[in-house]
Structure formats: structure tokens, C-alpha cells
């Protein structure tokens, strides 16, 4: 039976989507005995029971905002956090039969460089998936070109996909913090109400401030009229 591989992407301005399309084409034309689904936007595949049926998942995603997921990947990213929370609570490893690899897109001009790809890689590991190769990180202002790094990912991934059966159940190729493990935790995205807590006066506070200033203005007007 052929191995089943799913290619997911997360993108805002199409860089990761373009790379995913290119890689799927290359892999399909050069690998035998491997069936590849996708590329599919992460948000269109948030059912982790479905994902667990694949032999391998490849993910190409960027980071946006404050190290957040891009808009075609945010629902997937949230669901990934929910799956990890659930797995920690019941001690399960729902992706134990899976192997995965991540190709990240970002820029070192942001403090939260590669936050979404790094967290995605880490959390797949926490769900039991075997990391089959070190994450490749494409820095848009880095020395190595995007093309070179995509080729590097492609070469490594071809080897891994050829050895999927042989490597199943083996120790991961490396830990998630390679080539770098600096992240900004985003687990608050699944808290009640979602998103970050906003500080500030809120709507009631704003109305109260407006009322105070309006009162002061009318009192001044009245005083000026009396003088
Ligand atoms: C508003 C904005 C926020 C960004 N935030 C991050 C970030 O937190 N971390 C990062 O590594 N890159 C960040 N980037 C860079 C993008 O991830 C990078 O341009 C990437 O190549 C875009 O890939 P995409 O077109 O697939 O979305 C940001 C870019 C913009 C415009």
C-alpha cells in the first residue's frame, strides 16, 4: 500500500503557499509509492482524527502579527493547541503513528522570528508525531536564499519519505528546538474568549471619561456666561 502524505500550508501573502505548490509538484514527479494530498490550507483541515490517518504531514507556514499564525492557518493553530491540551489531560498521543516536518517562513526583523512554525513543530511532537527531519527556516532577509532553503528541504524530505516505513516508530530525527528554540508561548489563544487580554478603560470607562469632560465644558460655558 502506498504511504499517504498530507501537505498543509499557512500563508498571508502566498510565499508559503507557492513553496508548498512547488514542493508537491516535485515530490509527486519523483517519488513512487507515495500518495500526496494537498497542498491544503491548514484551516481547511482541522480534524485531527483525519490527520492521524496519514503516514506523514508536511507543513509550510509563516508567522504574522506578534508571532501568530497567518490567516489561512489560525484555526488550525488553535485546534493544534486544543489537541495538545486534551492529550496532556488524558495522557494520550493521538499522532503516534504520524511523522512530520516543518518548513518555516519569516523574517529576523521580527522578535518573534519563526514563532508559528516553531510552535507547530513542537506541538506535533507533543502529540506523538515523529519529527523526521530538522525544521528548515527561511529568513526573508537572511544570507541563504529562499530558493536554496526550499531545495534543501526538498532534498531532505525526499529521503525521509522514501524511508517512511523503515523509520516509523523510531526516535525523532532531532528535537524541536533545532535549529533554534526561542518562542513566544501562544497557548492563551484557546482561553475562554480567545485572544490576548486587553488592558485599558474599556467602553464604560471611555463613556465615563467623555461624560466628565462634557460636564467640565458645560460648567465652564455657564461660568463664562455669568461673568
Ligand atoms: C505585519 C507582519 C508581521 C510579521 N510578523 C512576523 C513574525 O512575528 N515572525 C516572523 O518570523 N516573521 C514575521 N513576518 C514576516 C513574514 O512571515 C514573512 O514575510 C514571510 O515570508 C511571509 O510568508 P507568507 O507570504 O507565506 O505569509 C511578518 C510580516 C508582516 C508584514
TrEMBL record:
<dbReference type="GO" id="GO:0016491">
    <property type="term" value="F:oxidoreductase activity"/>
</dbReference>
<dbReference type="GO" id="GO:0005829">
    <property type="term" value="C:cytosol"/>
</dbReference>
<keyword id="KW-0812">Transmembrane</keyword>
<feature type="domain" description="Flavodoxin-like">
    <location>
        <begin position="5"/>
        <end position="158"/>
    </location>
</feature>
<feature type="transmembrane region" description="Helical">
    <location>
        <begin position="200"/>
        <end position="219"/>
    </location>
</feature>
<dbReference type="Pfam" id="PF00258">
    <property type="entry name" value="Flavodoxin_1"/>
</dbReference>
<protein>
    <recommendedName>
        <fullName>Flavodoxin-like domain-containing protein</fullName>
    </recommendedName>
</protein>
<keyword id="KW-0472">Membrane</keyword>
<dbReference type="InterPro" id="IPR029039">
    <property type="entry name" value="Flavoprotein-like_sf"/>
</dbReference>
<keyword id="KW-0285">Flavoprotein</keyword>
<dbReference type="InterPro" id="IPR001094">
    <property type="entry name" value="Flavdoxin-like"/>
</dbReference>
<keyword id="KW-1133">Transmembrane helix</keyword>
<dbReference type="GO" id="GO:0050660">
    <property type="term" value="F:flavin adenine dinucleotide binding"/>
</dbReference>
<keyword id="KW-0288">FMN</keyword>
<dbReference type="InterPro" id="IPR008254">
    <property type="entry name" value="Flavodoxin/NO_synth"/>
</dbReference>
<dbReference type="GO" id="GO:0010181">
    <property type="term" value="F:FMN binding"/>
</dbReference>
